[in-house]
Design goal:
Blueprint (H helix, E strand, L loop, with lengths): L19 E2 H9 L5 H10 L9 H9 L8 H30 L3 H12 L2 H8 L4 H23 L7 H16 L4 H19 L4 H17 L10 H11 L1 E2 L2 E2 H14 L4 H10 L10 H23 L12 H4 L2 H6 L5 H19 L12 H7 L14 H4 L5 E4 L5 H4 L10 E5 L7 H4 L3 E7 L5 H10 E7 L7 E8 L4
Parallel strand pairs: 4-5, 4-6
Antiparallel strand pairs: 1-5, 2-3, 6-8, 7-8
Helix pairs in contact: 2-3, 4-5, 4-7, 5-17, 7-8, 7-9, 8-10, 9-14, 12-14
């Protein structure tokens, strides 16, 4: 999105071992040299990060017009401001969805509360990545799914061009929000096609909308299908077909994902449902109940599948669907006949989710039971709370040597941690120690974990001793070394 590489890391360049303070470094990194239009065109035609599409980052680029690249707070405010807009849209679509499924306004409010103040939704709000956009689009798609499902059940499937175009555009946006969204679209779409067959309703409007959505995708992002042949895609294919000596590895992974899922983020949903079930009147399932059960089943299947094949076992890949799990509340609360008990469940829901969202980060350290520890980890994430504990932030008087032979964007990820007054240098890890480094008695070295440090490391150990070695938990790609010169004998 920004200039590809404003710093040449080779030892022949002018940038090699030049000094930059933190403010200048961040300004050169984050101040776009091109216009927003030029950057968006580049994202469309030459996006070099193939596992991600261009939709979210094009919208984010528009939000950064006029931003001060030297102040990370300005960038964070704009990125989180964009997520707030997505959150408002999420509220609107979820409210419309719940109004179509619930007869009690209190149930609607309780479900909105559980869905949008839970730790996963608030975490997405703070994370300047495509996940909040995907959450909004998943809710919108679920709302449209319910409307189409009802139309099929009532034998009133419409083939108006305007409605087909709206559905096609929504499908295109959902699929462009991330490649994992394909699974959720496939599950909901499969249910609709199956109902069309069983109810003998025309499938042509749905197929036309899907076909049009593919054309829209290619119009917005022509390289969309390149994502199926990138390195991340190969990793997923390997997980799908990997088999170990004890049998199906994928089956074991799915079981582990299910255990993780129900023992952490989903536990409060189903705990409240279990408690409420003692006062539920179990009558025949209504149409709304069936729709909710279908949506919940699709969401759970998608979550387990994605968690199983995701490159990292991190909840951020599936948090977009967590607000959909809140539909368990209309399924439960609407069936409670006792008014007082229904009110108690609604208030209990709000209290549980407020407590779970704002659990202190260190509270889980006092528990030994794994289930409790997993449950307590459902707090808000992506708060950058490690910034003050990052070693270089504590000692801004020491110079920092950035050691990287990879693409610029790897170390851009930790630039937010750089104090403005600190001095930074670039060095080539495949070259001998630069003379500039030897001028300092103490310094920091930040190295990309994959960097080959064979020659560099041996020279380093001859002249310096390592007095600190850490890896920041928010930025696991990087290792930080604090070094001190060995006195000559």
């Amino acid at each position: 999105m920004f200039s590809e590489c404003k710093f040449d890391l080779t030892s022949q360049s002018n940038d090699y071992c030049n000094s930059y303070d933190g403010k200048e470094l961040k300004k050169r990194l984050w101040n776009p040299e091109n216009s927003a239009y030029s950057d968006i065109c580049q994202l469309r035609n030459a996006n070099k990060d193939q596992p991600h599409t261009n939709l979210y980052y094009s919208i984010l680029r528009l939000c950064l017009v006029g931003a001060d690249g030297s102040e990370e707070r300005d960038l964070i405010n704009r990125g989180c401001g964009l997520n707030i807009i997505f959150a408002i849209l999420s509220f609107f679509f979820l409210y419309r969805l719940l109004k179509s499924l619930c007869s009690d306004d209190r149930t609607v409010m309780a479900t909105l509360l559980a869905a949008l103040i839970c730790a996963s939704s608030l975490s997405n709000l703070l994370f300047i990545r495509p996940y909040k956009l995907q959450e909004t689009l998943f809710i919108a798609l679920t709302y449209v799914f319910v409307k189409i499902y009802r139309a099929i059940e009532s034998g009133n499937v419409k083939d108006k061009p305007r409605e087909i175009l709206v559905l096609a555009l929504l499908l295109a946006l959902v699929l462009l929000s991330g490649y994992f969204a394909i699974g959720y679209v496939a599950l909901l779409g499969g249910v609709l096609l199956l109902r069309c067959i069983l109810k003998k309703q025309p499938m042509i409007p749905l197929m036309v909308a899907l076909t049009l959505s593919l054309f829209m995708i290619l119009l917005i992002y022509p390289k969309y299908f390149d994502g199926f042949s990138c390195g991340r895609a190969d990793e997923i294919y390997a997980r799908l077909f990997e088999v170990d000596s004890s049998g199906g590895n994928l089956l074991k992974t799915c079981g582990k994902a299910l255990e993780q899922l129900f023992s952490s983020f989903l536990a409060p949903f189903f705990l409240i449902a279990l408690i409420s079930s003692f006062k539920i009147s179990f009558n025949k399932l209504s149409t709304n109940d069936k729709i909710i059960l279908i949506v919940l089943a699709c969401a759970i299947i998608w979550s387990i599948a994605i968690f199983s094949v995701a490159p990292y076992k991190d909840y951020r890949y599936i948090m977009a669907v967590f607000p959909v799990f809140a539909l368990v509340f209309p399924l439960v609360i609407e069936r409670i006949k006792n008014v007082r008990y229904k009110s108690a469940v609604i208030y209990f829901t709000g209290i549980v989710y407020l407590i779970m969202a704002f659990i202190p980060p260190t509270l889980d350290e006092h528990f030994t039971k794994s289930f409790v520890k997993k449950l307590l980890k459902q707090r808000i994430r992506f708060l950058y709370r490690d910034k003050d504990r990052f070693p270089i932030s504590k000692k801004p008087e020491l110079p920092v040597f950035i050691c990287n032979d990879e693409c610029c964007y790897y170390w851009v990820s930790i630039a937010i941690l750089f104090p403005n007054e600190q001095n930074y240098f670039f060095i080539d890890p495949k070259k001998p120690l630069p003379k500039k480094l030897l001028e300092y008695k103490r310094a920091f070295i930040i190295a990309y974990e994959k960097a080959q440090l064979s020659t560099f490391s041996s020279d380093l150990l001859k002249n310096y001793k390592i007095i600190l070695h850490c890896r920041n938990s928010n930025f696991e790609w990087w290792k930080v070394y604090e070094i001190e010169k060995i006195p000559k004998q």
